[in-house]
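re: the backbone from monday

yeah here it is again, tokenized this time
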């Protein structure tokens, strides 16, 4: 069994005021202000509240899918979404918004739709249902259902299927680009290399010339370099075996395309899992690996909800900052402040994590016992991968 990851809502979103290739202004606004503008531009404020809620949730989810999949940055653009309904959803710079829509958005902008078991926000496409139709939500149809007494979840399930759920109260942060910020090459290691390897393997299913990697181990060795070289050759990139920004975003573009993550019907990205064995691994300064990444994720997440812990880099390296965060956590929960993550510390971390998931997620699928440490740590923006305590990166 597993616990659902709590994703993040971006603080800001950058909107291109035109078609993607059109020379037009980019406007950066807060995410809730963006949704207020879209909702005020797409639907009527006089509609039933349940119809407005359904439409706002679709608009939030669609925008978050664009951000999550880096739909436009992976194509070389410097924005997250456009203002045009041919591609995205309507945004009008400087327009006024409606009081009832503002109120609903303020209540709902940290909630979005996903399919059960998937990471990515649903690409919740919609159309007006009169002059245009689509496979997603009908805006006028949603109002007709609301007039007949349907609530917003009934409306959403009618158009998107019964296998959807809501993520509630997702934390807000400035979501960075997925590119690590430096080239990956032979000798690199860590979580970014895992993401790279997983993308190569999935893309290789559609492009068999790319050699498959037997191990997704986070170590950039000769086989990973060869797979990168073949990928670069297949897609007309400079063949140097180094994953710079251009190669990275070509990988992202192809990964999103082959999995259809930006489509309403997608292959879906499953959650990253850290599965616990019968005995829990003790961690201390100097340790490395996925278990340390899980620890860092737990500490960062708990710190946002329970008390003031700094957000840690989830790099799988148990350094001084991670040790200090462990000691702060132990002090806050009346454990011996050793900085060593023993059985008691793991279980307390787990209990706090489950408490957050229980109160923050709708329909969370939680383990039946705290001793079943089969948890989730933060999924990257792209492929998840199975890990176990004691694995090396």
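seq for it, each position gets an aa:
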């Amino acid at each position: 069994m597993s616990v659902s990851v709590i994703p993040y809502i971006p603080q800001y979103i950058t909107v291109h005021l035109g078609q993607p290739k059109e020379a037009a202004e980019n406007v950066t606004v807060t995410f809730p202000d963006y949704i207020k503008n879209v909702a005020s531009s797409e639907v009527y404020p006089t509609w039933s509240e349940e119809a407005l809620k359904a439409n706002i949730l679709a608009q939030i989810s669609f925008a978050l899918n664009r951000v999550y999949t880096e739909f436009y940055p992976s194509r070389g653009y410097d924005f997250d979404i456009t203002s045009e309904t041919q591609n995205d959803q309507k945004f009008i710079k400087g327009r006024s918004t409606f009081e009832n829509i503002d109120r609903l958005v303020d209540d709902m902008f940290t909630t979005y739709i996903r399919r059960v078991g998937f990471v990515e926000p649903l690409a919740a496409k919609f159309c007006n249902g009169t002059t245009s139709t689509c496979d997603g939500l009908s805006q006028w149809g949603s109002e007709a259902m609301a007039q007949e007494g349907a609530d917003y979840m009934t409306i959403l399930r009618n158009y998107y299927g019964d296998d959807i759920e809501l993520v509630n109260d997702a934390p807000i942060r400035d979501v960075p680009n997925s590119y690590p910020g430096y080239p990956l090459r032979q000798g690199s290691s860590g979580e970014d290399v895992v993401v790279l390897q997983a993308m190569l393997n999935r893309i290789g299913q559609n492009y068999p010339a790319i050699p498959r990697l037997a191990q997704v181990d986070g170590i950039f060795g000769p086989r990973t370099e060869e797979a990168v070289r073949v990928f670069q050759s297949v897609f007309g990139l400079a063949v140097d075996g180094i994953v710079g920004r251009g190669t990275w975003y070509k990988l992202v573009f192809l990964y999103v395309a082959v999995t259809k993550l930006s489509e309403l019907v997608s292959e879906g990205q499953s959650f990253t899992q850290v599965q616990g064995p019968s005995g829990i691994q003790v961690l201390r300064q100097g340790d490395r690996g996925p278990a340390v990444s899980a620890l860092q994720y737990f500490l960062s997440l708990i710190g946002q909800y329970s008390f003031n812990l700094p957000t840690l880099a989830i790099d799988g390296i148990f350094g001084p900052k991670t040790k200090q965060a462990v000691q702060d956590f132990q002090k806050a929960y009346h454990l011996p402040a050793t900085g060593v993550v023993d059985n008691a510390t793991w279980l307390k971390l787990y209990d706090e994590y489950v408490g957050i998931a229980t109160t923050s997620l709708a329909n969370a699928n939680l383990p039946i016992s705290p001793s079943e440490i089969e948890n989730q740590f933060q999924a990257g923006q792209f492929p998840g991968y199975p890990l176990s305590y004691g694995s090396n990166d």
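The CA atoms of residues 20 and 129 lie 25 Å apart. The longest strand covers residues 12-16.
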